Amino acid sequence: MRMRHVWIGAAFAAAGACAEPETNQMQALAERYVKLVLAVGQHDTDYVDAFYGPPEWRTAAVKRPLAEIDAEAAAVAGQLTAVVQESADPLVVLRHRYLTRQVEALRTRVAMLGGKRLTFDEESRALYDAVAAHHDAAEFEGVLAQLEQVLPGPGALLDRYTRFRNAFVIPPARLDATFKAAIDACRRRTLQHVDLPPGESFTVEYVTDKSWSGYNWYQGQYRSLIQVNTDLPIFADRAVDLACHEGYPGHHVYNVLLEKTLVRDRGWPEFQVYPLFSPQSLIAEGTANFGIEVAFPPADRLKLEREVIFPAAGLDPTGVGHYYTVMGLVDRLSYAGNEAARRYIDGEIDAAGATAWLERYGLYSGARATQRVRFVDQYRSYVINYNLGKDMVARYVDARAGGDTSKRWAAFTELLSSPRLPSGLAVGGK
Ligand SMILES: [Zn+2]
Questions:
Q1: Confidence (pTM)
Q2: Which of 50, 179, 320, 325 can pair with 218 through a Cys bridge, CB separation 3.0 to 4.6 Å?
Q3: How far is 284 from 330, CA to CA, in rounded Å?
Q4: How many angstroms does the Cα of residue 366 sit away from the middle of ligand 1?
Q5: What are the per-10-residue average pLDDT scores of the chain (430 residues)?
Q6: 205 Cα: distance to centroid of ligand 1 (angstroms)
Q7: HEC profile for 157-178?
């Protein structure tokens, strides 16, 4: 611990000693931003997702009033506009734009903590720099009709789907071994294409009573703590999804690359903190979800499930193909989850209405719909970061790499290593 802070301090001093005045100004503003994020964290326990900077930057025991935090954030924003924004180095340009937008999002979160009410779309634009398209129920009806075809039989579709999926639950006694097999496969695949610094690693814990199914808590020093929630049975497909999303090439790799390229190589202090309710989360969740397909395109995924994951879970691998046909269709219902959240946050439906919508159009079982509504209570419009984030990242990578495997990994890794905003993912975006 001690060595790390001495080392980072030295990196900042070196950056300052030979830097232009604009660089020194950016360093100072970035440090103030980190301290502001930590100050907001004293009002909002979900806000600081990761912080591995100097411990003395953590604010004192006394909370700073929200109005005072906002006034300083406004001052930082004002001073940022005065810093020269042009540079031959594209990362420097991205950095300025990114920090400016992160400060704006911080001010929105402060306003919300002070009681400001925003609609779902206003909130997602302000916090995550993106708005999800609206969908009619009719759009989901078409997918449900296809599911009726692939899951024939008596009774309601949700009951048939629930019964079908329950045959693919990983037995609790095999969960850890199955998850480890998935992590091992995801890590090996990622290391074929991404240079990771020596010493990167993570630990896995199994937890209960959470609104999420998995969480990566980045600790710095290239280490993560990954928690897997075992409140509800875990299905076979979740092993690779979680291992890629939370680990390789998802959140763990994203945080490791930010620490390596931006904190250690560049000495940029703002990347030692990760405020959850900010544009960074769309990039984080979008890359973590799209990373599953980057690592394992459909044919590779089926092979991995058939040869490694299903056997580890003690499940009959002959059902793999049909299972993924069904799950591919169910995945197309993911935007139904956004609709439920939007209507619920906007007050058009209550919690029972949101649960019913999730069951009807998203094929959530009762227990999973209840868990999802709890998630929306806690994280609100954050839900768009998973599916809209994934789609935006997919378009970004596809536009640069098409179907070429090594180009896809290169574009994906470049995105994981740079401070790009969601609005900068669009073709021609900045
Ligand atoms: Zn995630």
A1: 0.92
A2: 50
A3: 23
A4: 23
A5: 35 47 88 96 96 87 91 97 84 95 98 97 98 93 96 94 95 96 98 97 94 92 95 94 97 98 97 98 98 97 98 96 95 95 97 96 94 94 96 96 94 97 77
A6: 16
A7: HHHHHHHHHHCCECCHHHHHHH
